[in-house]
Amino acid sequence: MLKNLIAKVGKRYNIGKPRVVVGVPSGITEVEERAVEESVMQAGAREVYLIEEPMAAAIGASLDVGEPSGSIIVDIGGGTTEVAVISLGGIVVSHSLRIAGDELDEDIVNYIKREMNLAIGETTAEQIKMEIGCAMPLMTEASMEIRGRDLTTGLPRNVTITSTQIEEAMKESIGKIVEIVKMTLEKTPPELASDIMEKGIVLAGGGALIKNLDKLISNETGMPVYVAEEPLDCVVRGAGKTLEDIERLGRVLVNARNRR
Known about the structure:
This protein is an alpha/beta fold. The chain is 47% helix and 22% strand. The strands form three sheets. A five-stranded mixed beta sheet has the order 5-4-3-9-10, sandwiched between helices. A three-stranded antiparallel beta sheet has the order 6-7-8. Helix 4 (101-116) packs across helix 5. It is globular, with a radius of gyration of 20 Å. 38% of the residues are buried.
């Protein structure tokens, strides 16, 4: 995959071996770091820079990560939820949780299987999550019709599912995401906590689009919560901005810091 991607970029822009920025989970070990670097170099890169995903998300969400004041980003991706407090171009406190979009899809699949005796695929589950998924009750309950395989007869069957049912399906996993946010805030130095209280919490990643998740986190933490503009693209935008302005933002890179 990396070879094809790098080859396509090189051909499209008529360049040789490109410089590549790779987003990695926060707290990556040196062994994992070397493994990523070697894989990308073997795929045809000239240079490889690693950036922690919450840092990339913060840059992509237009947070000024170089300021001495504190900012907090919650990046809810597909496989992991990354929460990080950032100040002076570095991550001060961070937590990573292996519960995110994929786990929520699985929760929906299991709920419909258990409560409706119906088997659906992950693609349908993701569509349900995006259309009527919510972390708190909606002002007007939403519903949608879905099709799956009846587990008793083995035949296709249509059912109508509501936003209240999907909220119930995702409740436990969303609760764990809220807890990791609260845990990170509890470990934040007091001088940065006051900055965060003033600026608020920024949500990024596909999970940020779950309806009322921002309200739930705000209720649980007592802080304002904002969804980043185009949250799905925050990490990749942040990686791109870092590559474009490597002189100024180079200090946020994992392997650049380790080499100094």
